[in-house]
Amino acid sequence: MNNKRILVVEDEKDIRNLLCISLERMGFMAFPAATLTDAKKLISSETFDMGLTDVRLPDGNGIDLIKSFKKAFPDAPIAVMTAYDTTDVAVDAMKKGAFDFLPKPIRHERLKALVTDALENKSGSSDETPENFLIGETSPIKQLRSLIGKVSLTQAPVMITGESGTGKELVARAIHQKSHRRDMPFVAVNCGAIPSELMESEFFGHVKGSFTGAHADKAGLFQAAEGGTLFLDEVADLPLDMQVKLLRAIQEKAIRPVGAQKEIITNVRVLSATHRTLIDEVEKGSFRQDLYYRLNVIHVETPTLRERGEDIPLLSRYILDSLGGEDIKLSEQVLERLKTYHFPGNVRELENLLHRALALCEDSLILPENIQLPFSKDIVNESTGVDALEINDLDAYLASVEKSIIEAVLDAEQWNRSKAAERLNLTSRQFRYKLAKYGLSSENE
Fold first, then answer.
1. CATH number of the domain within which 232 lies
2. Measuring CA to CA, which residue among 311, 347, 338 is closest to residue 141?
3. Tell me, what CATH number does 26's domain have?
4. On the CB side of 379, how many CA atoms lie within 13 Å of its CA?
5. Could you tell me the CA-to-CA distances from 303 to 53, 163, 299, 308 in Å, in that order?
6. Which domain holds residue 337?
7. Angle separating helix axes 312-322 and 332-340, nearest 10 degrees
Protein backbone atom coordinates (compact mmCIF):
# COMPACT_ATOMS: atom_id res chain seq x y z
CA MET A 1 0.00 0.00 0.00
CA ASN A 2 3.05 2.30 -0.27
CA ASN A 3 2.51 5.55 -2.15
CA LYS A 4 -1.27 5.31 -1.89
CA ARG A 5 -2.71 8.81 -2.18
CA ILE A 6 -5.35 9.92 0.33
CA LEU A 7 -7.37 13.14 0.24
CA VAL A 8 -7.92 14.56 3.76
CA VAL A 9 -10.69 17.17 4.07
CA GLU A 10 -10.86 18.79 7.54
CA ASP A 11 -11.40 22.46 8.44
CA GLU A 12 -9.69 22.33 11.87
CA LYS A 13 -5.99 22.83 11.23
CA ASP A 14 -4.66 20.84 14.20
CA ILE A 15 -6.82 17.82 13.41
CA ARG A 16 -6.00 18.06 9.70
CA ASN A 17 -2.26 18.16 10.41
CA LEU A 18 -2.50 15.27 12.88
CA LEU A 19 -4.38 13.13 10.37
CA CYS A 20 -1.85 13.83 7.64
CA ILE A 21 1.08 13.02 9.94
CA SER A 22 -0.58 9.78 11.08
CA LEU A 23 -1.27 8.69 7.50
CA GLU A 24 2.26 9.52 6.35
CA ARG A 25 3.69 7.49 9.23
CA MET A 26 1.60 4.58 7.98
CA GLY A 27 3.30 4.94 4.60
CA PHE A 28 0.63 6.87 2.68
CA MET A 29 0.71 10.20 0.85
CA ALA A 30 -1.75 12.67 2.41
CA PHE A 31 -3.21 15.66 0.53
CA PRO A 32 -4.88 18.17 2.91
CA ALA A 33 -7.87 20.42 2.13
CA ALA A 34 -9.59 22.82 4.55
CA THR A 35 -12.80 23.47 2.61
CA LEU A 36 -15.18 21.86 0.16
CA THR A 37 -13.90 24.20 -2.55
CA ASP A 38 -10.26 23.24 -1.92
CA ALA A 39 -11.19 19.56 -1.96
CA LYS A 40 -12.95 19.82 -5.31
CA LYS A 41 -9.94 21.61 -6.81
CA LEU A 42 -7.69 18.76 -5.68
CA ILE A 43 -10.12 16.19 -7.06
CA SER A 44 -9.98 17.89 -10.46
CA SER A 45 -6.18 18.14 -10.53
CA GLU A 46 -4.92 15.03 -8.69
CA THR A 47 -5.64 11.31 -8.51
CA PHE A 48 -6.54 9.58 -5.27
CA ASP A 49 -6.78 6.06 -3.95
CA MET A 50 -8.99 7.09 -1.03
CA GLY A 51 -10.82 10.05 0.48
CA LEU A 52 -11.39 11.05 4.11
CA THR A 53 -13.70 13.97 4.76
CA ASP A 54 -15.23 15.79 7.70
CA VAL A 55 -19.00 16.33 7.54
CA ARG A 56 -19.23 19.96 8.62
CA LEU A 57 -17.09 22.24 6.48
CA PRO A 58 -17.05 26.06 6.31
CA ASP A 59 -18.54 26.16 2.82
CA GLY A 60 -20.74 23.07 2.72
CA ASN A 61 -21.43 19.50 3.76
CA GLY A 62 -18.76 16.84 3.41
CA ILE A 63 -21.40 14.30 2.44
CA ASP A 64 -21.96 16.32 -0.74
CA LEU A 65 -18.30 15.68 -1.57
CA ILE A 66 -18.93 11.93 -1.80
CA LYS A 67 -20.71 12.27 -5.16
CA SER A 68 -17.91 14.38 -6.67
CA PHE A 69 -15.23 12.06 -5.35
CA LYS A 70 -16.95 8.86 -6.56
CA LYS A 71 -17.60 10.41 -9.97
CA ALA A 72 -13.91 11.21 -10.39
CA PHE A 73 -12.62 7.97 -8.82
CA PRO A 74 -15.34 5.30 -9.06
CA ASP A 75 -13.23 2.53 -7.54
CA ALA A 76 -11.71 4.61 -4.72
CA PRO A 77 -13.35 4.40 -1.26
CA ILE A 78 -14.23 7.53 0.71
CA ALA A 79 -15.02 7.64 4.44
CA VAL A 80 -16.57 10.40 6.54
CA MET A 81 -15.54 11.80 9.94
CA THR A 82 -18.07 13.30 12.30
CA ALA A 83 -18.65 14.32 15.89
CA TYR A 84 -22.32 15.11 15.29
CA ASP A 85 -25.43 12.92 15.16
CA THR A 86 -23.32 9.84 14.52
CA THR A 87 -26.09 7.42 13.62
CA ASP A 88 -28.03 9.63 11.21
CA VAL A 89 -24.93 11.02 9.54
CA ALA A 90 -23.28 7.62 9.18
CA VAL A 91 -26.38 6.06 7.66
CA ASP A 92 -26.87 8.96 5.25
CA ALA A 93 -23.22 8.92 4.21
CA MET A 94 -23.10 5.19 3.52
CA LYS A 95 -26.36 5.27 1.60
CA LYS A 96 -24.72 7.88 -0.66
CA GLY A 97 -21.67 5.72 -1.26
CA ALA A 98 -19.31 6.21 1.68
CA PHE A 99 -17.19 3.18 2.49
CA ASP A 100 -17.44 3.71 6.25
CA PHE A 101 -17.47 6.41 8.92
CA LEU A 102 -15.04 7.50 11.63
CA PRO A 103 -16.46 9.16 14.78
CA LYS A 104 -14.50 11.91 16.52
CA PRO A 105 -12.33 12.08 18.53
CA ILE A 106 -10.31 9.95 16.13
CA ARG A 107 -8.13 7.25 17.63
CA HIS A 108 -5.01 6.13 15.80
CA GLU A 109 -5.95 2.43 15.95
CA ARG A 110 -9.34 3.07 14.38
CA LEU A 111 -7.90 5.31 11.68
CA LYS A 112 -5.34 2.67 10.76
CA ALA A 113 -7.94 -0.12 10.68
CA LEU A 114 -10.34 1.89 8.53
CA VAL A 115 -7.75 2.99 5.98
CA THR A 116 -6.23 -0.50 5.76
CA ASP A 117 -9.66 -2.05 5.25
CA ALA A 118 -10.64 0.51 2.63
CA LEU A 119 -7.51 0.09 0.53
CA GLU A 120 -7.52 -3.70 0.82
CA ASN A 121 -11.15 -3.75 -0.24
CA LYS A 122 -10.30 -1.72 -3.33
CA SER A 123 -7.99 -4.50 -4.49
CA GLY A 124 -10.96 -6.58 -5.59
CA SER A 125 -13.04 -9.50 -4.43
CA SER A 126 -13.51 -13.11 -5.32
CA ASP A 127 -15.65 -13.93 -8.31
CA GLU A 128 -16.32 -17.46 -7.12
CA THR A 129 -19.93 -18.49 -6.61
CA PRO A 130 -20.00 -19.28 -2.90
CA GLU A 131 -23.15 -21.28 -2.17
CA ASN A 132 -25.84 -23.39 -3.81
CA PHE A 133 -28.61 -20.82 -3.30
CA LEU A 134 -26.98 -18.66 -5.98
CA ILE A 135 -27.67 -21.36 -8.56
CA GLY A 136 -30.29 -20.25 -11.05
CA GLU A 137 -30.90 -18.09 -14.08
CA THR A 138 -34.20 -16.40 -13.22
CA SER A 139 -34.36 -12.63 -12.82
CA PRO A 140 -34.69 -12.61 -8.99
CA ILE A 141 -31.53 -14.68 -8.46
CA LYS A 142 -29.57 -12.67 -11.03
CA GLN A 143 -30.55 -9.45 -9.27
CA LEU A 144 -29.53 -10.96 -5.92
CA ARG A 145 -26.12 -11.98 -7.27
CA SER A 146 -25.58 -8.46 -8.64
CA LEU A 147 -26.56 -6.82 -5.36
CA ILE A 148 -24.26 -9.09 -3.36
CA GLY A 149 -21.36 -8.09 -5.59
CA LYS A 150 -22.05 -4.40 -4.94
CA VAL A 151 -22.55 -4.53 -1.18
CA SER A 152 -19.44 -6.67 -0.69
CA LEU A 153 -17.33 -3.64 -1.70
CA THR A 154 -18.51 -1.48 1.19
CA GLN A 155 -18.45 -1.68 4.98
CA ALA A 156 -22.07 -0.54 5.25
CA PRO A 157 -24.25 -2.72 7.50
CA VAL A 158 -26.67 -4.91 5.57
CA MET A 159 -30.12 -6.03 6.70
CA ILE A 160 -31.17 -9.29 5.01
CA THR A 161 -34.88 -10.08 5.09
CA GLY A 162 -37.02 -12.81 3.62
CA GLU A 163 -39.13 -15.85 4.41
CA SER A 164 -37.73 -18.79 6.36
CA GLY A 165 -35.76 -21.15 4.15
CA THR A 166 -34.76 -18.58 1.52
CA GLY A 167 -31.08 -18.59 2.51
CA LYS A 168 -30.53 -15.40 4.51
CA GLU A 169 -27.43 -16.78 6.19
CA LEU A 170 -26.11 -17.96 2.82
CA VAL A 171 -26.51 -14.41 1.49
CA ALA A 172 -24.51 -13.13 4.46
CA ARG A 173 -21.79 -15.72 3.81
CA ALA A 174 -21.70 -14.74 0.14
CA ILE A 175 -21.23 -11.06 1.03
CA HIS A 176 -18.40 -12.06 3.37
CA GLN A 177 -16.77 -14.40 0.84
CA LYS A 178 -16.79 -11.79 -1.91
CA SER A 179 -15.31 -9.07 0.32
CA HIS A 180 -11.70 -8.48 1.32
CA ARG A 181 -12.59 -10.05 4.69
CA ARG A 182 -13.06 -13.49 3.11
CA ASP A 183 -9.87 -14.89 4.71
CA MET A 184 -10.98 -13.77 8.17
CA PRO A 185 -13.66 -15.31 10.41
CA PHE A 186 -17.35 -15.41 9.60
CA VAL A 187 -19.24 -15.75 12.88
CA ALA A 188 -22.99 -16.43 12.80
CA VAL A 189 -25.17 -16.19 15.88
CA ASN A 190 -28.89 -16.78 16.38
CA CYS A 191 -29.92 -13.91 18.64
CA GLY A 192 -33.00 -15.77 19.83
CA ALA A 193 -30.99 -18.75 21.07
CA ILE A 194 -28.91 -16.91 23.70
CA PRO A 195 -30.36 -16.62 27.24
CA SER A 196 -30.87 -12.95 28.09
CA GLU A 197 -28.74 -13.17 31.25
CA LEU A 198 -25.75 -14.42 29.23
CA MET A 199 -26.19 -12.18 26.20
CA GLU A 200 -23.76 -9.37 27.12
CA SER A 201 -21.04 -11.88 28.02
CA GLU A 202 -21.61 -13.84 24.80
CA PHE A 203 -21.38 -10.74 22.62
CA PHE A 204 -18.61 -8.81 24.38
CA GLY A 205 -16.83 -11.40 26.53
CA HIS A 206 -15.97 -11.12 30.22
CA VAL A 207 -12.99 -11.04 32.54
CA LYS A 208 -12.24 -13.53 35.28
CA GLY A 209 -14.22 -12.90 38.45
CA SER A 210 -16.66 -10.43 36.87
CA PHE A 211 -19.63 -12.56 37.99
CA THR A 212 -20.34 -15.89 39.65
CA GLY A 213 -19.06 -18.65 37.40
CA ALA A 214 -16.59 -16.45 35.50
CA HIS A 215 -13.58 -18.61 36.32
CA ALA A 216 -11.46 -17.34 33.42
CA ASP A 217 -11.36 -14.58 30.82
CA LYS A 218 -13.61 -15.28 27.87
CA ALA A 219 -13.64 -13.69 24.42
CA GLY A 220 -17.02 -12.72 23.00
CA LEU A 221 -18.49 -12.91 19.53
CA PHE A 222 -17.03 -9.55 18.50
CA GLN A 223 -13.52 -10.74 19.38
CA ALA A 224 -14.13 -14.07 17.62
CA ALA A 225 -15.10 -12.19 14.44
CA GLU A 226 -12.19 -9.73 14.61
CA GLY A 227 -11.18 -8.67 11.11
CA GLY A 228 -14.11 -10.54 9.63
CA THR A 229 -17.90 -10.54 9.69
CA LEU A 230 -20.41 -10.94 12.51
CA PHE A 231 -23.80 -12.17 11.31
CA LEU A 232 -26.74 -11.52 13.65
CA ASP A 233 -29.52 -13.87 12.63
CA GLU A 234 -33.04 -13.16 13.95
CA VAL A 235 -31.84 -9.80 15.26
CA ALA A 236 -35.43 -8.85 16.13
CA ASP A 237 -35.21 -11.25 19.07
CA LEU A 238 -32.65 -9.10 20.90
CA PRO A 239 -34.00 -7.64 24.16
CA LEU A 240 -34.14 -3.84 24.36
CA ASP A 241 -31.31 -3.49 26.89
CA MET A 242 -29.00 -5.48 24.61
CA GLN A 243 -30.06 -3.39 21.62
CA VAL A 244 -28.67 -0.29 23.37
CA LYS A 245 -25.31 -1.97 23.96
CA LEU A 246 -25.14 -3.33 20.43
CA LEU A 247 -25.86 0.11 18.98
CA ARG A 248 -22.97 1.59 20.96
CA ALA A 249 -20.61 -1.20 19.89
CA ILE A 250 -21.45 -0.63 16.22
CA GLN A 251 -21.20 3.17 16.44
CA GLU A 252 -18.03 3.33 18.50
CA LYS A 253 -16.45 0.24 16.95
CA ALA A 254 -15.34 -0.68 20.43
CA ILE A 255 -16.60 -3.04 23.12
CA ARG A 256 -16.14 -3.37 26.86
CA PRO A 257 -16.07 -6.97 28.16
CA VAL A 258 -18.13 -7.55 31.29
CA GLY A 259 -16.01 -6.51 34.29
CA ALA A 260 -13.28 -4.88 32.18
CA GLN A 261 -11.98 -1.35 32.85
CA LYS A 262 -11.03 -0.49 29.27
CA GLU A 263 -12.73 -0.70 25.90
CA ILE A 264 -11.33 -2.86 23.11
CA ILE A 265 -11.19 -1.49 19.57
CA THR A 266 -12.90 -3.85 17.11
CA ASN A 267 -12.73 -4.27 13.36
CA VAL A 268 -15.87 -6.19 12.49
CA ARG A 269 -18.49 -5.83 9.78
CA VAL A 270 -22.00 -6.46 11.08
CA LEU A 271 -24.66 -8.12 8.91
CA SER A 272 -28.09 -8.96 10.27
CA ALA A 273 -31.21 -10.85 9.24
CA THR A 274 -34.80 -11.36 10.28
CA HIS A 275 -37.95 -12.96 8.88
CA ARG A 276 -40.07 -10.33 10.63
CA THR A 277 -41.07 -6.91 9.31
CA LEU A 278 -38.68 -4.92 11.47
CA ILE A 279 -40.31 -1.53 10.94
CA ASP A 280 -43.47 -3.02 12.49
CA GLU A 281 -41.40 -4.05 15.52
CA VAL A 282 -40.13 -0.46 15.74
CA GLU A 283 -43.68 0.87 15.72
CA LYS A 284 -44.67 -1.60 18.45
CA GLY A 285 -41.73 -0.42 20.57
CA SER A 286 -39.98 -3.80 20.67
CA PHE A 287 -37.07 -2.68 18.48
CA ARG A 288 -35.12 0.56 18.76
CA GLN A 289 -35.54 2.93 15.85
CA ASP A 290 -31.93 4.16 16.00
CA LEU A 291 -30.60 0.59 15.85
CA TYR A 292 -32.98 -0.23 13.00
CA TYR A 293 -31.63 2.63 10.87
CA ARG A 294 -28.06 1.76 11.83
CA LEU A 295 -28.44 -1.89 10.75
CA ASN A 296 -30.63 -1.23 7.71
CA VAL A 297 -28.24 0.96 5.73
CA ILE A 298 -28.49 -1.48 2.81
CA HIS A 299 -31.49 -3.78 2.48
CA VAL A 300 -31.30 -7.16 0.74
CA GLU A 301 -34.47 -9.19 0.22
CA THR A 302 -34.04 -12.91 -0.47
CA PRO A 303 -36.50 -14.15 -3.13
CA THR A 304 -38.89 -16.98 -2.37
CA LEU A 305 -38.70 -20.22 -4.30
CA ARG A 306 -42.16 -19.40 -5.70
CA GLU A 307 -40.65 -16.36 -7.41
CA ARG A 308 -38.04 -18.46 -9.17
CA GLY A 309 -39.80 -21.72 -9.88
CA GLU A 310 -37.89 -22.13 -13.15
CA ASP A 311 -34.71 -22.56 -11.08
CA ILE A 312 -36.09 -25.70 -9.42
CA PRO A 313 -34.53 -28.17 -11.94
CA LEU A 314 -31.06 -26.64 -11.45
CA LEU A 315 -31.47 -26.46 -7.68
CA SER A 316 -32.79 -30.02 -7.53
CA ARG A 317 -29.84 -31.31 -9.52
CA TYR A 318 -27.39 -29.58 -7.20
CA ILE A 319 -29.16 -30.85 -4.07
CA LEU A 320 -29.32 -34.45 -5.32
CA ASP A 321 -25.63 -34.36 -6.22
CA SER A 322 -24.74 -33.00 -2.77
CA LEU A 323 -26.76 -35.83 -1.17
CA GLY A 324 -24.89 -38.49 -3.11
CA GLY A 325 -27.54 -38.98 -5.79
CA GLU A 326 -25.42 -38.10 -8.80
CA ASP A 327 -27.01 -40.91 -10.84
CA ILE A 328 -30.58 -40.16 -9.73
CA LYS A 329 -32.94 -38.21 -11.97
CA LEU A 330 -36.35 -36.60 -11.47
CA SER A 331 -39.19 -37.69 -13.71
CA GLU A 332 -40.96 -35.05 -15.78
CA GLN A 333 -44.11 -35.51 -13.67
CA VAL A 334 -42.12 -34.82 -10.50
CA LEU A 335 -40.52 -31.70 -11.97
CA GLU A 336 -43.90 -30.34 -13.03
CA ARG A 337 -45.33 -31.04 -9.59
CA LEU A 338 -42.42 -29.29 -7.89
CA LYS A 339 -42.73 -26.28 -10.19
CA THR A 340 -46.40 -25.79 -9.31
CA TYR A 341 -46.07 -26.45 -5.57
CA HIS A 342 -46.27 -23.38 -3.30
CA PHE A 343 -43.15 -24.21 -1.19
CA PRO A 344 -43.92 -22.36 2.05
CA GLY A 345 -40.56 -23.62 3.36
CA ASN A 346 -38.69 -22.47 0.23
CA VAL A 347 -35.28 -23.97 -0.66
CA ARG A 348 -34.96 -25.68 2.73
CA GLU A 349 -38.23 -27.51 2.11
CA LEU A 350 -37.11 -28.54 -1.39
CA GLU A 351 -33.94 -30.02 0.10
CA ASN A 352 -35.94 -31.97 2.69
CA LEU A 353 -38.36 -33.28 0.06
CA LEU A 354 -35.52 -34.47 -2.18
CA HIS A 355 -33.67 -36.03 0.75
CA ARG A 356 -36.77 -38.10 1.58
CA ALA A 357 -37.44 -38.92 -2.08
CA LEU A 358 -33.88 -40.15 -2.49
CA ALA A 359 -34.41 -42.55 0.41
CA LEU A 360 -37.70 -43.84 -1.05
CA CYS A 361 -36.48 -44.13 -4.64
CA GLU A 362 -35.95 -47.78 -5.70
CA ASP A 363 -34.07 -47.16 -8.94
CA SER A 364 -32.41 -44.25 -10.71
CA LEU A 365 -35.64 -42.31 -11.36
CA ILE A 366 -37.62 -40.40 -8.72
CA LEU A 367 -41.34 -40.90 -9.43
CA PRO A 368 -44.40 -38.96 -8.18
CA GLU A 369 -45.04 -41.55 -5.45
CA ASN A 370 -41.57 -40.81 -4.04
CA ILE A 371 -42.36 -37.11 -3.62
CA GLN A 372 -44.58 -36.63 -0.59
CA LEU A 373 -45.79 -33.06 -0.87
CA PRO A 374 -47.51 -31.99 2.35
CA PHE A 375 -51.20 -31.11 2.41
CA SER A 376 -51.52 -27.40 1.77
CA LYS A 377 -54.25 -24.81 2.17
CA ASP A 378 -53.53 -23.98 -1.47
CA ILE A 379 -55.50 -27.09 -2.44
CA VAL A 380 -58.55 -25.46 -0.87
CA ASN A 381 -57.89 -22.11 -2.51
CA GLU A 382 -57.32 -23.59 -5.95
CA SER A 383 -60.26 -26.03 -5.69
CA THR A 384 -62.93 -23.62 -4.45
CA GLY A 385 -62.05 -19.98 -4.98
CA VAL A 386 -65.34 -18.90 -3.36
CA ASP A 387 -65.85 -15.55 -1.65
CA ALA A 388 -67.11 -16.24 1.90
CA LEU A 389 -69.71 -13.45 1.55
CA GLU A 390 -71.34 -15.35 -1.32
CA ILE A 391 -72.08 -18.46 0.80
CA ASN A 392 -75.83 -18.98 1.50
CA ASP A 393 -75.88 -22.63 2.66
CA LEU A 394 -72.91 -23.37 4.96
CA ASP A 395 -73.47 -27.15 5.15
CA ALA A 396 -73.67 -27.48 1.37
CA TYR A 397 -70.62 -25.29 0.94
CA LEU A 398 -68.54 -27.26 3.48
CA ALA A 399 -69.56 -30.50 1.78
CA SER A 400 -68.44 -29.14 -1.60
CA VAL A 401 -65.13 -28.02 -0.11
CA GLU A 402 -64.56 -31.43 1.48
CA LYS A 403 -65.31 -33.18 -1.80
CA SER A 404 -62.94 -30.84 -3.70
CA ILE A 405 -60.16 -31.47 -1.19
CA ILE A 406 -60.58 -35.26 -1.37
CA GLU A 407 -60.55 -35.14 -5.17
CA ALA A 408 -57.46 -32.92 -5.19
CA VAL A 409 -55.59 -35.21 -2.79
CA LEU A 410 -56.62 -38.32 -4.75
CA ASP A 411 -55.31 -36.68 -7.94
CA ALA A 412 -52.07 -35.73 -6.17
CA GLU A 413 -51.65 -39.34 -5.01
CA GLN A 414 -52.68 -40.79 -8.39
CA TRP A 415 -55.84 -42.20 -6.81
CA ASN A 416 -53.93 -44.30 -4.30
CA ARG A 417 -56.59 -44.55 -1.56
CA SER A 418 -54.22 -45.59 1.23
CA LYS A 419 -51.85 -42.69 0.66
CA ALA A 420 -54.72 -40.21 0.26
CA ALA A 421 -56.35 -41.37 3.51
CA GLU A 422 -53.01 -41.15 5.33
CA ARG A 423 -52.39 -37.66 3.98
CA LEU A 424 -55.82 -36.50 5.18
CA ASN A 425 -55.35 -38.26 8.55
CA LEU A 426 -58.43 -40.45 8.02
CA THR A 427 -58.91 -44.15 8.78
CA SER A 428 -59.61 -46.49 5.87
CA ARG A 429 -63.21 -46.86 7.06
CA GLN A 430 -63.73 -43.07 7.30
CA PHE A 431 -62.23 -42.58 3.87
CA ARG A 432 -64.41 -45.28 2.24
CA TYR A 433 -67.49 -43.64 3.77
CA LYS A 434 -66.59 -40.23 2.33
CA LEU A 435 -65.84 -41.72 -1.09
CA ALA A 436 -69.28 -43.29 -1.13
CA LYS A 437 -70.91 -40.11 0.20
CA TYR A 438 -69.53 -38.00 -2.65
CA GLY A 439 -69.79 -40.66 -5.36
CA LEU A 440 -66.03 -40.97 -5.73
CA SER A 441 -66.01 -44.67 -6.58
CA SER A 442 -63.17 -46.85 -7.79
CA GLU A 443 -64.19 -46.29 -11.41
CA ASN A 444 -62.56 -42.85 -11.12
CA GLU A 445 -59.19 -44.47 -10.50
1. 3.40.50.300
2. 311
3. 3.40.50.2300
4. 18
5. 37, 8, 13, 8
6. 306-374
7. 110
**Residue 384 CA, distance from chain mean position:** 37
- Calpha distance 154→145 (Å, rounded): 15
DSSP, residue by residue, 386-397: --GGG-S-HHHH
Query: pLDDT tens digits for 323-371?
Result: 888 899 999 989 988 988 888 889 989 998 999 898 888 888 998 888 8
Least confident of 103-107, 109-113, 385-389, 412-416: 385-389
The model's pLDDT over 23-32, given as tens digits with 9 standing for 90+, comes to 999 999 999 9
**Residue type at 13?**
K
C-alpha dist (Å) from residue 312 to 97, 139, 153, 221, 328: 36, 14, 30, 36, 15
Per the structure, how many domains does the chain have?
Answer: 4
Compute the average pLDDT of residues 170-175.
Answer: 93
CA angle 439, 441, 445 (to 5 degrees): 130
Q: Which residues of 215-237 are buried (b: 16+ CB within 10 A; e: fewer)?
A: eeebebbbbebbebbbbbbbbbb
